[in-house]
Amino acid sequence: MTTSDTEPSPSGVTRLWLTEITHSRIVDRAGEPLGRVEDVIVRLGAGGYPPVAGLIGRLAGRQLFVPRDRVGEVERKRVQLTGETLSLLRFERRQGEVLLRSDVLGRRVISVETGRLITAGDIQLSAGRSGWKVAGVDSSRRGALRRMLPPPFNAPRHHARFFVDWAQVEPFVGHVPTSRLLMPIRRLRRLHPAEIADIVESASHEEGEEIISAVHADPELEADVFEELNTEHQVEFLHARSDAEAAMVLAGMGADDAADLITELDQGRRAAILALLPPAKQAKVRALLSYSPESAGGLMSPDFVAVAEAATVTEALAAVKTAGLSPQVLADVFVTDASGRLVGAVPLVSLIQARGNGGVAKLVQRGDTALESGDDLPEVARLMTDFNLSVAPVVDDGRRIIGVISVDDVLEAMLPDSWRRRSEADHG
């Protein structure tokens, strides 16, 4: 069995590219020509490196299935069969089967290593003791060009820099007919929600729907991804969902993000979806909707940690542990007096470094750095910059804290829409 000279092969392993196998001559045991290879069949459902289940060949004008146990020696542009007979049944795709040439080659796949979409310009297969498996893809643009050229100009030429191991690849399968495959979530979980949102926004609608359907298996991840999507895509993917399904997504989002999204939905759906939210989340969202989106009240999150000034460090840290909030919001713990008025803030790192039986009142580092709900974005940015705040409190007329604004909220509000997504920034 020969090997491709375009990729180094470990001892005992043969590596060939898909474009070296498709259109190859199929010959019998005696070397007499029978037909041509049209495609390579793999099974994706098992995960890992997909095993080759067989070939699709065209013999005597018929498209036939060649099972893996009938495939003998495979080399560049030549496949030799074993045995004396071959079934003449036409190929019919079985559950979970994917055709590499028809379904994957030349299409975009997800690189979970870089968090980007890449094109499978070619697909590498490796053969070992357990049979042939998919090893990886060539993500270079030359693969697509090469497929359009006649021999010998279409001879495979690959560079190791463009090789992506299949363990770092997630293909789209929604377009595969009768495969009954769903994109698994296991590899997507290795990506940050913002990276998944980047991919969704740079994908086609069908590809984006497939990714959103995959993360639906993890409600927390789904909500995090929706928070990172731009408004256009949030609305796009909620449009086809029922009010109950939309409410489930919004329930997992932060109250401030959920409020922002509700205002972008069709007016006829807003009240129905809002009514389906859990009572506590619904109350927070309704309160946020009463503020202008350009004000501190519209920017703030109603979730924060505040303790009485009589609390100990141990009690404050216990409140942080049980809060279940994002790290950005938990950067500071706020301290209030007996009447609930804001006294100041204590950085979380100061609490961690302090003695557990000490009082938090002695650790307060900032006093009057609060915002009012009506303050505009420039005022919010000015105060947070002047005092080097990563999170700023928002208070009512009685100086009772009603929410907080984190620095990422300010950055998001100030960044131009065209800069928000990494793919747009890279290619704009």
Annotation keywords:
alpha+beta; MgtE N-terminal fold; CBS-domain; single chain; 428 residues; SH3 type barrels; disordered C terminus
If you had to describe this structure to a student in words, what would you say it looks like?
The chain has about 425 residues and is an alpha+beta fold. About 30% of the residues lie in helices and about 25% in strands. Strands 2, 3, 4, 5, 6, 7 and 8 form a seven-stranded mixed beta sheet that branches. Helix 6 crosses helix 8 and helix 8 packs across helix 10. It starts with 13 loop residues before the first strand and ends with a helix. The relative contact order is 0.07.
Secondary-structure topology with pairs:
Elements: E1 14-17, H1 18-21, E2 25-27, E3 33-43, E4 52-59, E5 62-67, E6 71-75, E7 78-81, E8 97-99, H2 100-104, E9 108-111, E10 116-119, E11 122-128, E12 131-138, H3 142-147, E13 163-165, E14 169-171, H4 193-202, H5 205-215, H6 219-228, H7 231-239, H8 243-252, H9 255-262, H10 267-275, H11 279-289, H12 296-299, E15 306-308, H13 313-323, E16 332-336, E17 342-347, H14 348-353, E18 371-372, H15 377-386, E19 391-395, E20 401-406, H16 407-414, H17 422-427
Parallel strand pairs: 2-7, 15-16, 18-19
Antiparallel strand pairs: 1-11, 2-3, 3-4, 3-8, 4-5, 6-7, 9-10, 9-14, 11-12, 12-13, 16-17, 19-20
Helix pairs in contact: 4-5, 4-6, 6-8, 8-10, 9-11, 15-16
